[in-house]
Amino acid sequence: MSGQSGRTTSGNDGLDAILRGGLVANRLYLLEGSPGSGKTTLALQFLLDGVSRGEPCLYVTLSETEEELHGVAASHGWSLDGVSIFELATAEEALGADRQQSILHPWESELGGTIKLIKDVVQKIRPKRVVFDSLSEMRLLAQDPLRYRRQVLALKQFFAPLDVTVIIVDDLTGEEDGQRDAHLHSLCHGVITLERLTLDFGAARRRLEVQKMRGIEFVGGFHDFVIRRGGLDVFPRLIASQHHEPFLGESVASGLPELDEMLGGGPLRGTSTLLTGPAGAGKSTIGLQYVFAACERGENCTIYEFDERIGTMLARSRAMGLDLSGHIDAGRLVIEQIDPAEISPGEFASHVRREVETRGSRMVMIDSLNGYVAAMPQEQHLILQTHELLSYLNQRGVTTLLINPQSGLVGTMATSINVSYIADAVLLIRFFEAGGRIRKALSILKNRSGPHEDAIRELRIDSGGVRIGEPLTAFRGVLTGTPEYVGSHGPLMEDRGSGA
Question: Which residue ranges does the record assign to the KaiC domain (predicted)?
Answer without folding.
Answer: 6-248, 250-482
